[in-house]
């Protein structure tokens, strides 16, 4: 059985067998250059074939600095990052008002970097992997506080940076700025909300229009249409926002997807951003979202075996603990927005992958709800 090494700030214990996983529960949204590699032996499955997992409670790094992308003044870029980070010491939710010109530069320069890199990124550990952020900027800053601000650690984000939350602009601007400053150490994948037809409805369009104008939203759309859609870590961990596709038989198909592109309603690109694991099915099933498919544990095992992979890492669904295993721990869902939309009591999580491909989950606890003050009667 798989064991979990549960580490707190003061103690380390081994707990096993690991509790049985449950399929990620979600609030469904309806559709409207890599270096020479090390030896692959024993790099992911440890302890006689078992995946050794550590869970870190954050409330209780490696520097491989990249070069600043061409086309943006380094002093300007650093100034943007500094202003975005200044609110760390301010009250949660304080806006950072960049100029429209600065934001346009972030979009245009990062767009060229995305197009210069593969649609299937080939990355190396160590790296930290984050799921949905959804405009929860203060929680994004918390992730960096705990994981290390770039370039202290390498990062891969799995998409859904905008919509739902109140600060999509701050969120996406900081992520794009870090992508420009550290292009070989900081990576962003496309989520289903990095699509005009979706973020036109779920908040980002309105935020851009309220704080700037519709033209700027269209500039973001041009940038989002160039984002890569998957990443492969040390040939063993395949990452995407949504999940598998019945059309995916070879990883080269991902590399061959054209960019820039909108997200179609069907097909491989759609599925990579929209599909979900289904606990109670085998094979492929209908998705309650009204788009793409659900897939059973059998399809996960079949895919991993065929491609000599050890793990699928995806986001796209709210999970209570911030991370959740599926298919005998061959797939993990990561969700990094605690107290999602202010309506859920979920934690957020970030998965750290070390040089041996051992995975640890760092947890952002949900904020405690403050009791409401009730005025006594008769006063």
Automatic annotation (TrEMBL):
<dbReference type="InterPro" id="IPR050341">
    <property type="entry name" value="PP1_catalytic_subunit"/>
</dbReference>
<dbReference type="GO" id="GO:0005737">
    <property type="term" value="C:cytoplasm"/>
</dbReference>
<protein>
    <recommendedName>
        <fullName>Serine/threonine-protein phosphatase</fullName>
        <ecNumber>3.1.3.16</ecNumber>
    </recommendedName>
</protein>
<keyword id="KW-0479">Metal-binding</keyword>
<dbReference type="GO" id="GO:0046872">
    <property type="term" value="F:metal ion binding"/>
</dbReference>
<dbReference type="Pfam" id="PF00149">
    <property type="entry name" value="Metallophos"/>
</dbReference>
<dbReference type="InterPro" id="IPR029052">
    <property type="entry name" value="Metallo-depent_PP-like"/>
</dbReference>
<dbReference type="GO" id="GO:0004722">
    <property type="term" value="F:protein serine/threonine phosphatase activity"/>
</dbReference>
<keyword id="KW-0378">Hydrolase</keyword>
<dbReference type="InterPro" id="IPR006186">
    <property type="entry name" value="Ser/Thr-sp_prot-phosphatase"/>
</dbReference>
<dbReference type="GO" id="GO:0005634">
    <property type="term" value="C:nucleus"/>
</dbReference>
<feature type="domain" description="Serine/threonine specific protein phosphatases">
    <location>
        <begin position="189"/>
        <end position="194"/>
    </location>
</feature>
<keyword id="KW-0904">Protein phosphatase</keyword>
<dbReference type="Pfam" id="PF16891">
    <property type="entry name" value="STPPase_N"/>
</dbReference>
<keyword id="KW-0464">Manganese</keyword>
<comment type="similarity">
    <text>Belongs to the PPP phosphatase family.</text>
</comment>
<dbReference type="InterPro" id="IPR031675">
    <property type="entry name" value="STPPase_N"/>
</dbReference>
<dbReference type="InterPro" id="IPR004843">
    <property type="entry name" value="Calcineurin-like_PHP"/>
</dbReference>
């Amino acid at each position: 059985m798989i064991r979990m090494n549960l580490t707190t700030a003061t103690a380390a214990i081994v707990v096993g067998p690991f509790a049985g996983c449950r399929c990620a529960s979600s609030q469904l949204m309806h559709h409207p250059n890599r270096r020479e590699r090390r030896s692959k032996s024993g790099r992911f499955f440890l302890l006689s074939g078992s995946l050794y997992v550590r869970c870190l409670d954050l409330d209780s790094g490696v520097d491989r600095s990249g070069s600043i992308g061409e086309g943006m003044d380094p002093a300007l870029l650093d100034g943007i990052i500094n202003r975005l980070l200044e609110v760390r010491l301010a009250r949660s939710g304080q806006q950072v008002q960049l100029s429209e010109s600065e934001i346009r530069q972030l979009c245009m320069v990062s767009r060229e970097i995305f197009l210069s890199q593969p649609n299937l990124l080939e990355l190396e550990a160590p790296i930290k992997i984050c799921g949905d952020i959804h405009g929860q900027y203060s929680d994004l800053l918390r992730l960096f506080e705990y994981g290390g601000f770039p370039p202290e650690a390498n990062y891969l984000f799995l998409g859904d940076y905008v919509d739902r939350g109140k600060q999509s602009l701050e969120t996406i601007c900081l992520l794009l700025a870090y992508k420009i400053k550290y292009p070989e150490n900081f990576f962003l994948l496309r989520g289903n909300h990095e699509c005009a037809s979706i973020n036109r409805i779920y908040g980002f369009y309105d935020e851009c229009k309220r704080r700037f104008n519709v033209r700027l939203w269209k500039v973001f759309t041009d940038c989002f249409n160039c984002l890569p859609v998957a990443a492969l870590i040390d040939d063993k961990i395949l990452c995407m926002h949504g999940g598998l596709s019945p059309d995916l038989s070879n990883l080269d198909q991902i590399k061959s997807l054209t960019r820039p592109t909108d997200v179609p309603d069907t097909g491989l690109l759609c599925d990579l951003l929209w599909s979900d694991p289904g606990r109670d099915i085998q094979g492929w099933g209908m998705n309650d979202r009204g788009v793409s498919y659900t897939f059973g544990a059998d399809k996960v095992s079949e895919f991993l075996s065929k491609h000599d992979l050890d793990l699928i890492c995806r986001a796209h669904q709210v999970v209570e603990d911030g991370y959740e295993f599926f298919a005998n721990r061959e797939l993990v869902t990561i969700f990094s927005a605690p107290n999602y939309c202010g309506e859920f009591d979920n934690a957020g999580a970030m998965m750290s992958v070390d040089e041996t491909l051992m995975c640890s989950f760092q947890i952002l606890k949900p904020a405690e709800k403050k009791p409401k003050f009730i005025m006594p009667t008769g006063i």
